[in-house]
Write a structure and sequence with these properties.
Blueprint: H1 2-20, E1 45-50, E2 57-63, E3 71-77, E4 79-86, E5 91-99, E6 107-115, E7 121-127, E8 142-145, E9 150-156, E10 160-166, E11 171-177, E12 181-186, E13 191-196, E14 201-206, E15 212-217, E16 234-236, E17 239-243, E18 248-253, E19 260-261, E20 265-266, H2 270-274, E21 278-279, E22 285-287, E23 293-298, E24 310-317, E25 322-333, E26 335-338, E27 345-349, E28 355-360, E29 366-371, E30 378-380
Length: about 375
C-alpha cells in the first residue's frame, strides 16, 4: 500500500508538470471536400419537404433522373415549414416556426432565405409570432407575388389573415384580414385570391406598398355541402385547377385583377362514378410543362375518403376536358408531382413509406425508388 501511494504521487507530479507546459495550439480541422450545388437547378431536381415534429424539418434536394446519386443535399427547417423558390436568384424560402425549448417555450415565426448552391441560410425575416397557419405544408400557405419580390404567408389564430412580406428589403409590409376565408393564391402581378366559407373566391389587389386597394367577390361555385373542392391545386400558366371530392374539377383564371371561375367539368364517367372513383390524398393534383393535369385517384370512394391514398394517376388534357392516360401505381400514394422536364417524371410518395417512387410520366412505367425517409407530405418543383 505504501509503494502504491508513492507510485501515485510520482505519476501525479509527472502529469502536473506535463500539463503545466505550454502546448502548441491545435489547428482547425480542414474538410478536404466541400461541394456546392448549381445555383440554378436542372428540371429533373425536386424539393422534398420532410416534416418533423416538432423540430426536425428538412427540405431535401433530389434528382429523380440520377440513377446513382439522386440525393443532392438538405437544408434544416423548423416546425411545419412551408416552401417557395426563386430559381432565377438561386435561393429558396421557408416560412417556419421554432420554440425556445424545442417542443415548447417562446415561439418564433420567420421566413428563412437559403442559398441554393450551399443550402445554407443567408438571411431571415421575423414574422409576427403566433400567427402562421400551422398545418402540414401546402402550397396555398406560402406563395410569391410581385415578380417574386414579395411573399404571402397565410395566418390562422383562428382569425384568418395574409401577411405580405418584402423579400428584397426584408420587412413586413401589411397584414390583410380575410375573415371567413383561408389560404392565398397569386393573382395578377400584385394580388391574391382566397377561398371563402360560402363557396366563393375573393380577389384582393395590392398597391406598391402592399396595401389592399380593391376587393372582388365571385359568385358561389364551391358546393361545400355536397361536393367541396380541395384546397390543393395545380397551376397551368395563369389558370389554377381545383379538383372536387367527388371527381369534378374547376378552372380559375388568375391572370387579371379578379379571379374568373370557369366551368366545372367531370374527371370521371358515369360508370366510373358508380365504381366510386374520385381524387384522394394530400397533394392530389399536379401538371407538366405541356399543361397536362395529373390527378391521384382511388376507387370505392365514400363521404370522407378524400384523404385516402390513391392507387392510380389519371392524366387529363384541360383543353379538351378529356382523359388521355391512366397509370396504375406500384404502391399507393398520398402525394404526387410531375417534373418540368421535356420528358417528365412522375413522382409519388406515401407518408409511411421511406421511398419516392419514380415513373415515366408519359407511359406510367415504373423506373426506380429513391429513399428519403418517412413523413414526406409535400413535393415541389422550381416552377
Amino acid at each position: 500500500m505504501k509503494y502504491l501511494s508513492i507510485i501515485t504521487l510520482i505519476l501525479s507530479s509527472f502529469y502536473t508538470s506535463l500539463f503545466a507546459q505550454e502546448l502548441p495550439p491545435v489547428s482547425d480541422d480542414e474538410v478536404d471536400i466541400v461541394e456546392k450545388l448549381p445555383i440554378h437547378y436542372p428540371d429533373s431536381w425536386i424539393y422534398v419537404s420532410k416534416t418533423g415534429f416538432p423540430t426536425d424539418g428538412r427540405i431535401m434536394i433530389v434528382d429523380v433522373a440520377d440513377k446513382t446519386k439522386p440525393y443532392k443535399g438538405a437544408a434544416s427547417t423548423g416546425y411545419l415549414g412551408d416552401f417557395a423558390v426563386n430559381n432565377e436568384l438561386g435561393e429558396f424560402y421557408v416560412s417556419e416556426t421554432f420554440y425556445s425549448r424545442a417542443s415548447r417555450g417562446k415561439r418564433s415565426d420567420m421566413i428563412t432565405i437559403f442559398d441554393q448552391a450551399t443550402l445554407m441560410p443567408k438571411g431571415e425575416i421575423a414574422l409576427e409570432e403566433g400567427k402562421r397557419f400551422l398545418v402540414l405544408p401546402m402550397k396555398g400557405k406560402f406563395r410569391l407575388i410581385n415578380n417574386k419580390k414579395w411573399a404571402m404567408v397565410a395566418n390562422y389564430t383562428p382569425a384568418a389573415s395574409v401577411t405580405i412580406v418584402d423579400l428584397e428589403n426584408k420587412k413586413l409590409l401589411n397584414e390583410i384580414p380575410i375573415p371567413g376565408c383561408n389560404l392565398a393564391f397569386p393573382l395578377g402581378n400584385r394580388g391574391f385570391a382566397t377561398l371563402c366559407g360560402y363557396g366563393e373566391v375573393i380577389s384582393v389587389n395590392l398597391d406598391e406598398n402592399g396595401q389592399s386597394i380593391a376587393e372582388h367577390q365571385s359568385d358561389v361555385f364551391n358546393d361545400l355541402d355536397n361536393d367541396p373542392h380541395f384546397e390543393k391545386f395545380t397551376r397551368v400558366g395563369e389558370v389554377m385547377y381545383l379538383p372536387t371530392y367527388e371527381g369534378n374539377i374547376t378552372p380559375i383564371d388568375l391572370s387579371g385583377d379578379q379571379a374568373k371561375v370557369g366551368e366545372t367539368w367531370s374527371l370521371v364517367s358515369d360508370a366510373e362514378r358508380e365504381q366510386g372513383w374520385r381524387p384522394g390524398g394530400w397533394q392530389v393534383i399536379t401538371s407538366d410543362s405541356s399543361g397536362n393535369l395529373y390527378v391521384l385517384m382511388h376507387d370505392k370512394g365514400y363521404n370522407g375518403s378524400h384523404k385516402d391514398p390513391g392507387k392510380e394517376v389519371w392524366v387529363f388534357d384541360p383543353k379538351s376536358n378529356s382523359r388521355t392516360a391512366r397509370h396504375t401505381l406500384n404502391d399507393v400514394a398520398w402525394s404526387i408531382l410531375v417534373t418540368k422536364e421535356k420528358e417528365p417524371h412522375l413522382v409519388t410518395v406515401m407518408m409511411d413509406d421511406e421511398n419516392l417512387n419514380v415513373y415515366d410520366a408519359a407511359s406510367g412505367d415504373f423506373i426506380r425508388k429513391i429513399k428519403v425517409g418517412t413523413f414526406v407530405p409535400t413535393l415541389y418543383t422550381s416552377e
